Amino acid sequence: MNQLIECVPNFSEGNDLNIIKQITNEIESVEGVKLLNVDPGKATNRTVVTFVGNPEAVVNAAFLAIKKASELIDMTKHKGEHPRMGATDVCPMIPIAGITMEETAEYAKKLGERVGKEIGIAVYLYEAAQKNKERNNLSVIRGGEYEGFFKKIKLPEWKPDFGPVEHSVKSGSTVIGARDFLVAYNVNLNTTSTRRANSIAFDVREAGRVKREGNPVTGKIVTDERGNPISIPGSLKFVKAIGWYIEEYGVAQISMNLTNINITPVHIAFDEVCKKSTERGIRVTGSELVGLVPLKSMLDAGKYFLEKQNRSTGVSEKELIKIAVKSLGLNELSPFKPEERIIEYLLKNDSNFRLIKMDLTEFADETASESPAPGGGSISAYVGSLGISLGTMVANLSSHKPGWDNRCKEFSDWAEKGQYYKNELLKLVDEDTNAFNKIMTAFGLPKSSDEEKTARTQAIQIATKYAIEVPFKVMQLCFDSMEVIKAMAEIGNPNSVTDAGVGALCARSAVMGAFLNVKINATGLTDKSFTEKLIYEGSLLEKKTQALENEILKIVNEKM
């Protein structure tokens, strides 16, 4: 697996789009990185940039961006709502694929050392890149901000990890580190009061608030035996939060960093802020995500809100995202565009999914054309996806059938299973055609020399083997999907029993059609033990499918 790091530098400029563009141009100039998102904020006067790439390329791109920011941003003139200490305020690296946190931390150190030496900016390491636990927290490091750092940097305990022991007047200082994926998330309130917003932030953030005697705001601070202030923890783990007023929108917000979305996901943070706001007579009106969000966060949120309504969660990915956006109020301040804000969508290579992006007429026309692909394999996968889609439809209809409210989760679980099979089979519609194209590419390789002939033969065999494995996977998925179809014929909404029957017919056709592809492609493979094994297993699967189809049709006919 290729190593992939995400980098999310925060620059202290959110208004001058020309400056922001010059910085992002530096990132895009580096081969091996992809700029995913640029999110400027006027009120915070801060831009969050997200890009991904291989580790060395990410280090180079981040260095160039930090250098350009130091040239263009003058911190003596900077004002904004968000805490900051430098032109590049913070530059975290996040392991995405094929790389450990420890390895990512080493690349963060490499970047920090280079920034300190070559640009002459004081650099502090944080999170996983910082061994000293007393100074690995970003908010602790940034304490005092740009204005206070001229004195702070001279303290022995705050000597920078890299660079001069000097806080640059123009560029300030920079924090670089490695951390887990963080979601920056703001919740909007129907108040303009920063003090009230802060009170809610203290209610929910993990650090909570300082304990006081009597009045929680003006009372004497309660300390322990060592004289340290005692804190009352907030209600949410792995959440940092402050309250602020955003003049651009005319509202106060709870600004949160969710540092472990497995423990406290976006939807839980939102609901908890709603609860604490209501207790203080304040109403949440919506929210906004800053930068990018993982797909799972949006899908989990959609399912969470559907479950609260006692509705089926076995709906499409698109529908789950729509529910999440509506429920979280993500469109209140500006349009939330999933294709621009969900990290997996930005990394997706749509060229691999050409067929399933077509409408029905286009797909039929493409199939009917003189091109040999898409052929029977792709059509089998598509027919299978339609079969399980019918089974899933029955599950969703059953989940909200009048009088069956107590069975919603039962049918919702079946619908989720159905969605899984549907999605996997849709991927294979294109993958079968891609497999065919790989064979054609292999046949087109040069064969002038013995060495080229050997390489060409090997490539043809590898491609052919894959062209057998893809339709065999279609067979397996279609057979497995019949579990859902059969259950819906047996226990689903009786008014839709014939839909389950048609689903079974589609699944059987898909299995038999895919098996034809397995067998025809097997004739071109020299590894006979591999083909004999798959054809034997395929024959058994075909027989089991036909038997299961008969069982389902018997149930359907008895209920009609």
Short structural summary:
By secondary structure, the chain is α+β, with helices and mostly antiparallel strands. It contains 17 helices and 13 strands.
How is this structure best described in words?
- With 560 residues, the protein is of the alpha+beta class.
- The protein folds into three domains: 4-178, 2-Layer Sandwich (Formiminotransferase-cyclodeaminase, Chain B, domain 1); 183-347, Alpha-Beta Plaits; 351-559, Formiminotetrahydrofolate cyclodeaminase monomer, up-and-down helical bundle (Four Helix Bundle (Hemerythrin (Met), subunit A), Up-down Bundle).
- 52% of the residues lie in helices and 14% in strands.
- The protein has 17 helices and 13 strands.
- Strands 1, 2, 3, 4, 5, 6 and 7 form a seven-stranded mixed β-sheet that branches.
- The model has no long low-confidence stretch (mean pLDDT 94).
How many strands in all? 13
The end-to-end span amounts to: 52 Å
Average pLDDT level = 94
Give the number of domains.
Answer: 3
Superfamily at the CATH H level of the largest domain?
Answer: Formiminotetrahydrofolate cyclodeaminase monomer, up-and-down helical bundle
Q: Would you list the SSEs in sequence order as H and E?
A: EEHEEHEHEHHEEHEEEEHEHHHHHHHHHH
Question: Rg, please?
Answer: 29 Å
